[in-house]
Amino acid sequence: MAVGSAPLALRRVQMQARSDRLEGIHGALEHVWAAGEDRGIRPALRARMEFDLAVIEVATNICEHAGPAGGVTFELELSLYADRIEARFEDDAGPPVLPARAEMPPHTAESGRGLAIVQRAVDEMRYERLGGRNNLWFLRKQLQPY
Amino acid sequence: MRINLEAPNPRTAVLHLNGRLDLGCAASVKTSILQAVEDGQPFVVVDLEHVPFIDSSGLGALIGGLRAARAAGGDLRIANAGPQARMILELTTLDRVLTTHDTIEAALGSG
After folding, report:
1. A128: which residues sit within 8 A by CB, 6+ positions away?
2. Fewest C-beta atoms under 10 Å: which of A14, A51, B21, B65?
3. Please, are residues B36 and B12 in contact by the beta-carbon 8 Å criterion?
4. Cα–Cα distance between A67 and A22 in angstroms, integer?
5. Do A139 and A119 contact (CB within 8 A), yes or no?
6. Would you call A104 an interface residue with chain B, using a CB distance cutoff of 8 Å?
7. How far is B90 from B82, CA to CA, in rounded Å?
């Protein structure tokens, strides 16, 4: 992570961890890409699609662990730089269930692909516990101008 | 997500999906496919022309549908996959089991 450089586009959203609220994340992603475009950042479509997918997969993971009852909130911060885009999620959902290694499951599996997709779609994925209660997810994807 | 069902012949169901195929609707899409198979239509074509986004939950619904279709002696094929759908199928290597076709006609006609 470069120190001291401000992002060219920044978007922060706070929302309930519910599967019917994912729309708000798509909106935030569109906003930050559009703001970047206004500043001349035009990444390849493939890179943009991969980052969007990784962000939705992490959000889905948070929603799934929050359960249908709701009550869990999270904050997502999207930061676009000239050469990369980053996402930082912080939630209060309690500990997530992390597989030891995020391997792609067999073709016949109906679940368990989320984390493996994130790992393939971005250049860096980090997870940390904050203060024994909150979860922090950090994603970074390098962008090649074209 | 809107789901419209069409039956071009008695053994075949075409599901036209409209919207993002994600956690919010994956269960209902899978139920629609299983229902068609149960109703005697084991050949299923899922039309993705109006699906701009699929995630792992959506893929799970398609795999669940594929398994049910094949167990009933049929198949599940994808038609009109856009760039995002093609990207996630490739990333997960599921393009090896979920065959994509450029048109519904091609999906209906092959094999």
Report:
1. A135, A136, A138
2. A14
3. no
4. 14
5. no
6. yes
7. 12
- Count of Cβ atoms closer than 10 Å to residue A73 Cβ: 16
For residue A60, the tally of other CB atoms under 10 A from its CB is: 22
Pairing outcome for strands B12-18 and B43-50: parallel
| Closest-CA residue of chain A to B95 | A107
Are A67 and A97 contacting, i.e. CB atoms less than 8 angstroms apart? Answer: no
In this complex, do B22 and A117 lie within 8 Å of one another by their Cβ atoms? no
**Residues 30-89, chain A: which have Cβ within 8 Å of B?**
45-46, 49-50, 52-53, 56-57, 60, 63-64
CA–CA distance, A99 with A97 (Å, rounded to integer): 7
Kindly report the pTM of this predicted structure: 0.93
**pLDDT (tens digit, 9 = 90+) per residue, A47-89?**
999 999 999 999 998 888 877 676 889 999 999 999 999 999 9
| Interface test mutation site (partner B, options A110, A122, A141, max chain B beta carbons within 10 A) | A110
With beta carbons less than 8 A apart as the criterion, state whether A98 and A112 touch: no
B60/A116 Cβ within 8 A: no
Q: How far is B108 from chain A (nearest CA, A)?
A: 23
Q: Where are the alpha helices (H) located in A67-132, listed in sequence order?
A: 114-121
CB neighbour list of residue A84: distance below 8 Å, 6 or more residues apart: A123, A140, A141, A142, A143
Do residues B79 and B46 make contact, with C-beta atoms less than 8 angstroms apart? yes
